[in-house]
Amino acid sequence: MIKKLDIYISKYFIKYFLMNIIGFMGVFLLAQTFKIIKYINQGKLVGGEIFDYIINLLPKMFVETAPLSVLLAGLITISIMASNLEIVSLKTSGIRFLRIVRAPLIIAFIISLLVFFVNNSIYTKSLAKINFYRKGEIDASLRLPTTKENAFLINNIDGYIYLMGNIDRESGLAEKIEIVVYENEISKPVEIITAQSGKYDKDNKKWLLSGVNIYNVETKKTITKVEYDSDRFIEDPNNFIRAAAEDPRMLTIKELKKTIKEQKNIGEDTRIYLSELAKRYSFPFASFIVAFIGLSISSKYVRGGRTTLNLVICVVAGYGYYLVSGAFEAMSLNGILNPFISSWIPNILYFIIGMYFMNRAEY
Q1: H-type helices in 42-101, by residue range?
Q2: Which residues pair with 198 in a beta bridge?
Q3: Domain ranges for the chain
Q4: Listing from the earlier edge strand, what are the strands of the sheet with 189-201?
């Protein structure tokens, strides 16, 4: 009997989830129609590119509408069973409500994993394609600058901090150079090297410095040299410069982690990348968490008016998640909250609400 129940409820849950996701994606696509027409008139989309552009919109639609689709699928499935007195009958026979909805919860978790995969792989590539069609070329902000002022780079492995007034990554020339050598802790420097200029030797892969002063912190003595080079200082000029505004949404989790490390090493702000990384882990599981609310809020037999109210509550709760999530994301970008904490707060809040309704549904 239990297996038949799982199959029965799973069939309807999947059915209504697919109906909801297709419906929401259709509305989303309809809203994009005017933009698509504008791009066609501007000559940005021609022939098969129109179909390719629409196809690349689908991953974004799926990722963003999956939580609301799961929420409503759970609501509709249980509402129908409750109105047919099936939920009451199952409870009377001694089956707990949590056991009744176990199969849909497992499906919701699988959907969350699917959202995680799509969001981290397919969506990142499709967004890059969409941006290419919209602008007609690679965004200038994603091109690596040739020069940079006040360049900073830290090598935590070897214990060096580089500060350069100006650096040209193509010519390998740099001015107003300062290198701080430390052991174990940055606050405990061993040697401070300053140079008027420097050039990166691409053949030997090391820096050749001119007008050099080497200050030994322990002995407090300074050595002056016209030219100086060392096999210790081998950082490539390209490592000092990164793209000004690489869209974090187009990066996979692996690429985000790499970018965060590189940006930290050159002293750049990493909040936008940390926020996106945290969101990659938290948002996909919203589909699983909101399932508790959708499946439990209409577990009791009610007449028409209350059913409509439950539907309104679910829709408000669904859209409310996006608002709460956006608010906490803004707080993390402004440095008020840790990005990983702020990204999981909406999930925790909705999980508590879901557990409250699940507890009520048992009685």
Answers
A1: 48-83, 86-92, 97-100
A2: 174, 209
A3: 2-138+274-361, 147-240
A4: 147-155, 160-168, 173-182, 189-201, 206-216, 221-229
CA angle 169, 152, 253 (to 5 degrees): 85
pLDDT tens sequence across 269-316? 788 889 999 999 999 999 999 999 989 887 765 555 566 777 788 888
Matching residue, tokens 């840790």: 338
More confident residue, 126 or 146: 126
Say which residue the tokens 């919860």 belong to: 105
For Cα atoms 250, 152, 276, give the angle at the middle one, nearest 5 degrees.
25
C-alpha distance from residue 217 to each of 162, 185, 191, 192, 222 (Å): 17, 14, 6, 7, 9
What's the pLDDT band for 80 if we cut at 50, 70, 90?
A: confident
**Spatial contact of 198 and 177, defined as CB atoms under 8 Å apart:** yes
Torsion of CA 38, 40, 41, 47, to 10 degrees: -170
**What whole-number percentage of the chain has pLDDT above 70?**
92
Output the furthest CA–CA distance in the chain (Å, rounded).
92
CA-based nearest residue to 75, from 356, 248, 313: 313
Task: Check residue 217 and give its pLDDT.
Answer: 85
